[in-house]
Specification:
Layout (H helix, E strand, L loop, with lengths): L43 H24 L13 H20 L5 H15 L3 E2 L1 H21 L11 H25 L8 E2 L13 H4 L1 E6 L8 E6 L44 E11 L6 E11 L4 H14 L22 E2 L2 E2 L21 E5 L8 E3 L2 E2 L2 H10 L19 H11 L6 H5 L6 H12 L8 H15 L8 H5 L7 H15 L12
Parallel strand pairs: 1-2, 5-9
Antiparallel strand pairs: 3-4, 5-6, 7-8, 7-9, 10-11
Helix pairs in contact: 3-4, 3-5, 4-5, 8-11, 8-12, 9-11, 11-12, 11-14, 12-14
């Protein structure tokens, strides 16, 4: 895991009402896209919970409620001029990217853009660097649209095309961030403007000129956006055009970010001490869910300190250079947290290292000259999307059926006011460690999802906040699970494959709760009227 101080994404978000609808009717903003509970000051974990709650439990009701007003009416026509214009624009954008057929990959431009923003518009920035970025980004964007190469087709699953569309948007967003940072000539929050600091190197705010919210209006392709601002009413004397010099020049002890130096960062690992592995890979390739698939062999040389997914990135770079379509595989955080990654490696879910997700598996676990077989999860509940990517939406259906609590929201009570035995708290935390990667399903001879379902159930059932729905949760989640997956016969392979080492004891707890919910009088259990 690479750890560094950084601005935590782009903070803030759109205004929404209690239905998560913005000021534009029909436009809903979920998770970090809205200001909601956290605004611009939130932590990653709480933002993740907001995204889950918005997506799983709020939007399905509020969006459906909004659409319900058109029940019984004719379908919305698609021959409107605005619809046709939007569709043609989107198709044209996709066709343009696919037809460029240049010499550089999407990842190349993504890295180049990231370096410009990191060097010029990081936590510490100055006018000179920002002005350079405003010259570099448009030049890079022009090169991107004239020299990028997007392998594959536009009418099917294509990760390269998805990434290209995102990078095209990143170009616009990066330029806007730099332009706004250049305009704001003060240090505030986590953003340090080197020209605006005290003699001691501390941040200097300028509320007289900058205590307002700026909004930029897109003017079109290659047209400079227009800025408007909502001022703090108390700053009646503040000018809408701040002066070019609002602070002292930077002092000798200016706090600048190390990555902003123009020189290249030295390599962390000496090439003289780095061991390079020569490997042969047998990778499952399948163009789509209904297409025939098979193994293809690729040779690759990779440092032993690279991760397994970095090795797949290297293979894809080689395929790109050869004019072939890259391998499609799931990945996201690459920190063993999100559960997105996951493949069978030589017949083992996530590979040979115990308690390790695929993204955290390093190539030092393998030997030079070895042949490695890589294939997707094999389960009816996880249909293949393409190559190594599978559809894990069945897990979402299980969580939606009962993996939540209905405790009234409000101010968080003091933790010491809720009497929870330590053993119960520890067990609930162990269950909550599940990242939903699906290794338990892939490793099980029956393709059962009992370990996943049990973990998602018991980390709620063991705590007081989850007791209100304990019995309905057990019944609903188990029966939803059985719609998609096979039955558990206690092989124990799920426990061995789990990267978080979740115990099959939770399956026993789940079975107990399910039987009790089905067989014991509900009135005695304090839930649901009988008769």
């Amino acid at each position: 895991m690479r750890i560094y101080p950084a601005t935590h994404y782009t903070m803030g978000g759109l205004w929404v009402d209690y239905n998560l609808q913005t000021t534009i009717p029909g436009l809903f903003a979920l998770g970090e896209a809205n200001f909601s509970d956290h605004g611009a000051n939130r932590l990653g974990a709480s933002a993740l919970m907001q995204g889950l709650s918005d997506g799983y439990f709020v939007a399905p009701s509020t969006v459906a409620g909004y659409l319900a007003q058109w029940l019984g009416t004719e379908p919305v026509p698609t021959d409107d001029a605005a619809f046709r214009e939007s569709l043609e624009e989107t198709r044209g954008r996709i066709d343009s990217l696919v037809s460029v057929n240049g010499t550089s990959s999407v990842d190349h431009y993504h890295r180049e853009l990231g370096k410009i923003v990191w060097d010029r518009c990081g936590m510490s920035r100055n006018a000179t660097g920002l002005e350079k970025a405003l010259a570099e980004i448009p030049a890079l964007r022009e090169q991107f649209w004239s020299d990028v190469r997007v392998p594959g087709r536009a009418d099917g699953m294509n990760q390269s095309l998805e990434n290209a569309l995102r990078v095209a948007d990143f170009m616009e967003l990066a330029e806007l961030k730099v332009r706004d940072a250049l305009h704001r000539e003060e240090s505030c929050g986590g953003h340090f403007r080197e020209e605006s600091q005290t003699e001691d190197g501390e941040a200097r705010r300028d509320d007289d000129n900058f205590a307002y919210v700026a909004a930029w209006e897109w003017g079109g392709e290659n047209i400079q956006p227009m800025r408007s601002s909502t001022r703090n009413p108390s700053n009646s004397n503040a000018s809408n055009s701040p002066s070019a010099a609002t602070s002292d020049p930077p002092t000798a002890n200016a706090r600048t970010h190390g990555a902003q130096a123009d020189s290249d960062t030295p390599a962390l690992t000496s090439e003289a001490t780095m061991k390079v592995l020569k490997l042969s890979l047998r990778v499952w390739r399948q163009d789509g869910p209904d297409a025939p698939g098979g193994f293809e062999t690729y040779d690759v040389e990779i440092p032993d300190d690279a991760s397994f997914l970095e090795m797949l990135d290297k293979v894809n770079e080689n395929l790109f250079q050869a004019g072939a379509e890259p391998i499609t595989f799931d990945h996201d955080c690459r920190e063993g947290i999100c559960g997105t990654c996951g493949v069978m490696i030589d017949g083992q879910a996530h590979g040979p290292q115990k308690a390790t997700a695929t993204c955290q598996l390093h190539m030092r676990q393998f030997s030079s000259g070895q042949t490695i077989q890589i294939e997707p999860w094999r389960a009816a509940g996880f249909p293949i999307v393409k190559d190594l990517m599978v559809n894990r939406a069945a897990f979402d259906r299980i969580v939606e059926s009962g993996g939540y609590v209905t405790v009234t929201t409000g101010a968080a009570p003091d933790a010491n006011e809720i009497p929870i035995p330590k053993d119960a708290a520890d067990s609930a935390m162990d269950a909550a460690a599940c990242i939903g990667c699906g290794a338990c399903v892939a490793a099980c001879p029956n393709s059962a999802a009992n370990l996943f379902t049990a973990a998602k159930m018991q980390h709620l059932n063991l705590l007081p906040q989850g007791r209100a729905e304990r019995w309905s949760r057990a019944e609903d989640m188990v029966e939803t699970m059985e719609e998609y997956f096979g039955s558990c016969t206690n092989h124990g392979e799920c426990q061995e494959a789990c990267p978080k080492e979740i115990s099959i004891d939770f399956i026993a707890m789940m079975n107990r709760d399910y039987l009790k919910a089905k067989l014991v009088n509900r009135r005695r259990l304090g839930e649901r009227k009988i008769g």
